[in-house]
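DATA SHEET
Item: assembly model
Revision: 1
Owner: S.N.
Input lines:
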Amino acid sequence: MSMTMAEKIMAKASGKKETKAGEIVIANIDVAMTHDLTGPLSVKSFNKIEVDKVWDPEKIVILFDHQVPADSLDAAQNHIMMREFVEKQDITNFYDVKEGVCHQVLPEKGHIVPGEVVVGTDSHTCTHGALGAFSTGIGSTDMAMVFATGKLWFKIPETIKFDIQGNLKDYVYAKDVILHIIGKIGADGATYKACEFAGETTKKMSVSERMVLCNMAIEMGGKTGLVEPDEKTVNYLKDRTNREYGILKTDLDAESLDTMQIYVDDLEPQIACPHNVDNVKSISEVEGTNIDQVFLGSCTNGRLEDLRTAAKIVKGNQISDKVRMLVIPASREIYLQAMDEGLLRTFAESGALVCNPCCGPCLGGHIGLIGPGEVSLSTSNRNFQGRQGSPDAEVYLSSAAVAAASALKGVITHPRI
Amino acid sequence: MKDKIEGKVWKFGDDIDTDIIIPGRYLVLTDENELAKHAMEGVDPEFHRKAQDGDIILAGKNFGCGSSREHAPIALKAVGISAVVAESFARIFYRNAINVGLPLLESEKILSQFNQGDKIELYTDKGILENERTGEEYEIKKLPEFMLEILDKGGLILYLKEKLKEEM
C-alpha cells in the first residue's frame, strides 16, 4: 500500500506493516525529551504512577533551557528536583544549564535521526522533522506514561505536503516562507496534520533553514513538521551520530496526502503582527512601526546563519537609542562558533546585549520581559497576547535580517537599508 | 465522566491560546491551587475570583492553541471549570485536558448561540447540549470510547495505574 512518510514511520514504530491516517496505534518511542519548565510536572505525574524505574534511561533526554540560570527560587527548586530525578533514574543524556535550547541541542548532540519517533514536552518538538523524524510535542502526563512504558497512543495524521517552488529574493529567508504559509492557511489550517515541506526551494535549503520551517508547523496546528531526508541530512548527521537509520519517503500516490503549491519568487519579508501568528503582512505594510525591544534568538532563529546575517547588517553601526537588542545564540556550540567568527563582538560593539544560550524572552518567563505599551520585534515563533510579558504589550515576528535592520532604525525596517 | 454536566457559561472567542490560559511566567509553578490563581489571566486577571465551581467555558475555534504546557488544563480544572465546550480544539491541549480529567466537548457553530452567563446543560451520554434560557438543543461530537474511559477514571494516571495492575 502507498503511504506517507508519517504513516511509514508510525507503522515501523507500532510494529505494523502498514498504517493509515485516522487509525489509532500504540507506538514505541525512540527519544523522549523534557526540560526545566515542563519536566517538573512530568516527574510529578510519573511519581503518581508508582513505577520505580523509567522504561529506558538511555532514550530519555533532559535539559535545562527555559530558566537558565535560575531566575527565582521556584526555578532553582525545579532544577534541583530534575537533577535528583536524573540521578535516581540514571539518565545519561542530561544537559544542565550550559548547553542551550532543546530543539537545537538535540540534533547537535546526535539524538535525532530519520525514521524515528521523538516526543518532547514542548510544542516546538516538531522542529526535528527537519531531519526526517516524526517528532511532536506532548503534555506532562503523556510524558509520564512514556517514562513508565516507553509507549504512547497516536492517531495517524493525514499529511499536507507544501510543494515550495521558486528562488528567494535577497533578504528573504525560510522564516518568511513559513510565515507566508501560516498566513495563508491560518492558525488551525493544519490541525493534527503532518506538515511535509518539499519542492525545489526546500531542497536547496540547509538543515538549519529546514528546521525553521518545521519549527513553526505547530503554529498552524501541525502534529509534526517533516522534510524528506537527502544528502544534506546525511552530511549533517555524519559528524554527530553513529546511530544507524533508514530513510523513509512519502509515496506520491499515498491516499492521505494533500499537496499545496507555494510559489516564493516574489515573496517579500513577512511579518506576523499582534496577537496571532497567522496575522501575517508583507513588510511594506508595517514598515515604520515603532519598536522598543528586538530579540534575536530562539529555536526558530537563533542559529549561526541567523547570527551571521544579523551581524553583517549591524556591523559598524549603532543600535538605536530607543531600542534594547538581545542576542541569544541557541546553543553553546553556536555561541562558541559566533565567538570565533567575531559575531558576538560585533553585536556588543553595536550596543546589543549578548546573553547565554537559553529560550530568553520568547516565553515571557525569564529574561527580557516587555512592559505595558511596549512593542517587541522578535525572531521567535509566537506573538500571542502577553507572550513576552505584559498583556498590554505587542509582539511582531520576523526574520533575523529584519530584526537587525529594525534594531538600527528603531522602527520596523526592510533589511535592504 | 458524569452523564450530565451543567454550569454557567463564560464566553471566549477564537484561537484562545495557552499564553492566555496561563501566561509563561507562571509555568515555574506546579501547585494546582497556585496555577488556578492565574487561569485566563491573559485576558481577564480577575477570572479566578469570578469563576465559580462548575462553570463552563464556551469558545470558538482552535481553543488551546500554542504550547504543550499541561499547566493550562490544570489551571482551568483547579479554578473550578467543569468542562470546556468549543467549536474546535488544538490537539496538544486536547490530549492534555483529557489526560488530567478535564472534559472537552466539540460542537459546531455553538458560540453565537449563547450569551455570557447563560446556563448550559451537557448530556454527554446522549451527545447533546442545551441552552437553558432558550431551550434549544445542539449536537456534541462524541468522544472516542477510550477517552471516555480515561475521563471516567479521572485522568490518564489513574487509568494507567489500573491497567498496569490488571497486567500484573
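QC remark: Chain A is about 30% helix and 20% strand.
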